[in-house]
Design a protein that fits this description.
single chain, disordered C terminus, globular, 4 strands, alpha+beta, four-stranded antiparallel beta sheet
Length: 140
């Protein structure tokens, strides 16, 4: 059996978290709270207030030994990680960064279809799922 690629390992790990979402209020989902252990202690640990997409991506990178940038908890840090590829050349499992109101969002590329980019990540409108994002928002 062939050895899984880094992208395949990332996706397999990320899929284990499908359906995970934050809890409203100061009490955090324990599965998300465990991800915060890789982030600095000064970061607000309330998953309903703190954007945790970078923490999610860092967690799957750490657990799969595929690497993470020093400030993985900041989505924009992923812009300087890896090799930049064009959208048409992206493959499933590539790390993608989107510009959004108030900052950035990081996730794993699933596919590009009908002008939308499907991603798998944490802290998304649907719990750790694959929302469609307009391709014009593609950042890195």
């Amino acid at each position: 059996m062939p050895t899984p690629t880094a992208n395949q390992r990332l996706l397999a790990e990320a899929r284990k978290y499908l359906g995970i979402k934050e809890w409203p209020g100061p009490k955090s989902n324990p599965e998300i709270a465990a991800m915060f252990r890789l982030a600095p202690s000064w970061l607000d640990q309330d998953d309903s207030l703190t954007a945790w997409c970078g923490i999610f991506r860092g967690t799957v990178g750490h657990l799969t030994a595929t690497g993470i940038p020093p400030q993985h908890y900041r989505a924009a840090s992923w812009l300087n990680w890896g090799v930049v590829v064009n959208l048409d050349d992206a493959i499933e499992g590539d790390t993608v960064v989107f510009k959004r109101a108030g900052g950035y969002h990081v996730a794993l590329f699933n596919r590009h279809e009908d002008g939308k980019v499907w991603v798998l990540g944490g802290n998304q409108a649907t719990p750790s799922a694959s929302p469609r994002t307009p391709a014009r928002m593609w950042w890195g």
